[in-house]
Amino acid sequence: MLKVERLKKSFGGRVAVNDVSFHIEEGETYGLLGPNGAGKTTTISMIAGLLSADGGSVVVGGEPMSVGAVGVRSLVGYVPQEIAVYPELTAAENLLFFARLQGLDRKLAASRVSEILETVGLRDRADDPTKTFSGGMQRRLNIGVGLVQRPKLLILDEPTVGVDPQSRNAILHSVEQLGNEGLAVLYTTHYMEEAERLCDRIGVMDEGSLIAEGTQSELVSTVGERDRVEISVVSLSAAAAAALADLPFVESATDVENTVEVLLSDAGTHLAEMLARVGEAGSMVRGVNIHQPDLEAVFLNLTGKALRD
Q: What is the pLDDT of residues 141-189, one digit of tens each?
């Protein structure tokens, strides 16, 4: 549904986007992650046809995208970080206004408004002025505006910033439903848990370049992250560490104040054997904690920064 090839953009002497390429299939949610200043917003702006590229191409649904393109832009729903609704209008009036801007006739626009209010969970507030809505409700309506023309590609630029937990969960649920219904979604976020929950594949941007791409498991394996198991013992922790270090699947086992820290791949498969070996060493287990690698660890490894930096 979306094909980005060798996209480039500079502002003066500063390179904002440098040779970025990726694609998104129908029904796929693709996460674009990166610290502030990585080039995500510039990339999104070019994909949405809001900013011209210095080089490369964007193709949506088989049609080339550009600032001057009209027909292809109807295939894209763009939901910016900023709230883009009119506070004096009701939720239904906002959606109807944007539907008419997209060229929908009155009958079809009214039908779409009803459908969207249901999708974003605002049917019971359809006739209330948007200025009376919470921040989370306004963001849900913001997503609804991006859906009025039935886009093939939905771009969501940090849609949950500043919302309460209940609204945030409602937004994430809506995005999951849209992906299940076949919509291609490009999703940026500063919350790693959202990317882990929603995204089929993830691209990591830093300093204008796409430095890694894949599923969560593929990204984890790329940077060589391993499971870390903490085994708390009553005594003889040094003996337990030595016994575990002899196991062929253990990369390292370190004694740290009555806790043995073990580094290995696929801890769940080998846990029973490790606990048995600790018992054979004469030690007694008090507790076990397994820390599996996640996207946060991958991101720090790749960029040297936290996602919110």
A: 999 999 998 999 999 999 988 888 888 888 898 899 888 889 999 999 8
Task: Provide CB contacts within 8 A for 210, sequence distance 6+.
Answer: 20, 21, 22, 203, 204
The three-class DSSP label of residue 188 is strand
Cα–Cα distances (Å) from 286 to 105, 234, 255, 260, in that order, read 68, 6, 15, 11
Task: Tell me: pLDDT of 223 over 70.
Answer: no
Question: Can you give the CATH number for the domain in which 248 is found?
Answer: 3.30.70.100
Q: Is 62 helix (H, G, I), strand (E, B) or coil?
A: coil
Residue 307 included in any domain: no
Does position 274 have pLDDT exceeding 60, yes or no?
yes
Task: Single out the residue in 193, 221, 249 at which a domain terminates.
Answer: 221
DSSP alpha helix (H) spans, the chain: 40-47, 91-101, 106-119, 135-145, 165-180, 192-198, 216-222, 237-245, 267-280, 295-303
Domain housing 235: 226-292
Do 154 and 245 fall within a single domain?
no
Mean pLDDT of 111-125: 93
Residue 190's alpha-carbon distances to 93, 134, 154, 208, in angstroms, are 31, 21, 18, 17
Which residue in the block uniquely carries the two structure tokens 């409700």?
A: 137
pLDDT per position as a tens digit, 60-88? 999 999 998 888 988 999 999 889 999 99
Q: Distances in Å between the alpha carbon of 236 and those of 259, 261, 286, 294, 301?
A: 10, 14, 12, 31, 34
Structural domain tally of the chain?
A: 2
Q: How many CB atoms are closer than 10 A to CB 224?
A: 9
In the chain, the amino acid numbered 130 is T
What are the backbone angles phi and psi of residue 252, rounded to the nearest 5°?
-160, 150
